């Protein structure tokens, strides 16, 4: 099964993709995580994308599409995967259709996780992420058992530099301008399912599972 998780920064795409990929035995492709890894390692790709990420704007489509396409060739993606944070533009959505078709596959469902803007700002403000496994936490709503340490792998938690207030605002603007039009694209193709993202992690996960199995 090939799924896209669509939603604003802070909607819970990463959290849900981690839960659902385990439950449904699907690979998890998070473009943002792939870029952050490249930046941390200081690779050529990392050097290319660092500036865009710091500003909260999108990395150019060619770079992003190439990265995701290479990742999709991983053995773990043969039976399906969840795309988290990709596609974010119409050009990326069209490229995704083509890259799946070239492999004899097609997208099954696009899950839109809906969360109001005021709630997104609150969530992104208190977000901490594991440096090693990328599990996200929130100071108030889902704190780790020990401050600064990941419950899952013991890794160090840090605040993403692009979670600063000004950058968050830019990322939300980019989302509303460039990614929201994808809702119409997938609605027109009969792929879109909407899930209320303002409930507990477990409830949202259950809603997603029943929506994609329909
Ligand atoms: P995320 O972790 O998904 O919030 O992504 C963090 C940053 O990585 C974004 O603000 C963009 O700069 C970049 N990025 C991640 N995914 C994409 C994408 N599909 N297209 C363009 N840029 C992306």
Task: Tell me what you see in this structure.
The protein is α/β, with parallel strands linked by helices and 214 residues long. The chain has one domain (2-117, 165-213): 3-Layer(aba) Sandwich (Rossmann fold). It has nine helices and eight strands. It has helices at residues 13-23, 31-41, 44-55, 61-72, 90-102, 117-125, 165-179, 181-188, 201-213; strands spanning 2-6, 27-30, 81-84, 109-114, 127-130, 136-138, 157-158, 192-196. The strands form two sheets. The protein has a five-stranded parallel beta sheet, with helices on both faces. A three-stranded antiparallel beta sheet has the order 6-5-7. α1 packs across α9 and α6 packs across α7 (165-179). The two termini are 13 Å apart. Adenosine monophosphate is lined by residues 9, 31-32, 35, 52-53, 56, 58-59, 64, 85-88, 92, 162, 171.
Give the gist of this structure:
This protein has nine helices and eight strands.
- Average pLDDT over all residues: 95
Give the total of beta strands: 8
Q: Could you say which small molecules are bound to this protein?
A: adenosine monophosphate
Please give the share of residues in helix.
40-55%
Distance between the termini: 13 Å
Give the topology string: H per helix, E per strand: EHEHHHEHEHEEEHHEH
Strand order of the largest sheet: 2-3-1-4-8
What Rg is obtained from the alpha carbons, in whole angstroms?
A: 16 Å
Count of the domains: 1
- Please report which band the strand proportion falls in: under 5%, 5-15%, 15-25%, 25-35%, 35-45% or over 45%: 15-25%
Oligomeric description of these chains: single chain
């Amino acid at each position: 099964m090939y799924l896209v998780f669509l939603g604003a920064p802070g909607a819970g795409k990463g959290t849900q993709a981690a839960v659902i990929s385990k439950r449904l035995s699907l690979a998890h492709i998070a473009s943002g995580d792939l870029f952050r890894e490249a930046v941390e390692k200081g690779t050529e790709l990392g050097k290319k994308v660092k500036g865009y990420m710091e500003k909260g704007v999108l990395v150019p489509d060619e770079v992003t599409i190439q990265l995701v396409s290479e990742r999709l060739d991983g053995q773990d993606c043969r039976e399906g995967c969840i795309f988290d944070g990709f596609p974010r533009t119409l050009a990326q959505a069209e490229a995704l259709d083509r890259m799946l078709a070239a492999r004899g596959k097609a997208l099954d469902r696009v899950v839109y996780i809906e969360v109001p803007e005021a709630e997104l700002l609150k969530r992104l403000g208190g977000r901490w992420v594991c440096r090693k496994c990328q599990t996200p936490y929130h100071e108030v709503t889902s704190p780790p058992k020990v401050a600064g340490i990941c419950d899952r792998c013991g890794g160090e938690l840090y605040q993403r530099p692009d979670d600063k207030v000004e950058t968050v605002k830019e990322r939300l603007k980019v989302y509303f301008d460039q990614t929201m039009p994808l809702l119409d694209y997938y609605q027109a193709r009969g792929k879109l399912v909407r899930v209320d993202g303002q409930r507990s992690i477990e409830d949202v996960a259950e809603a997603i599972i029943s929506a994609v199995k329909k």
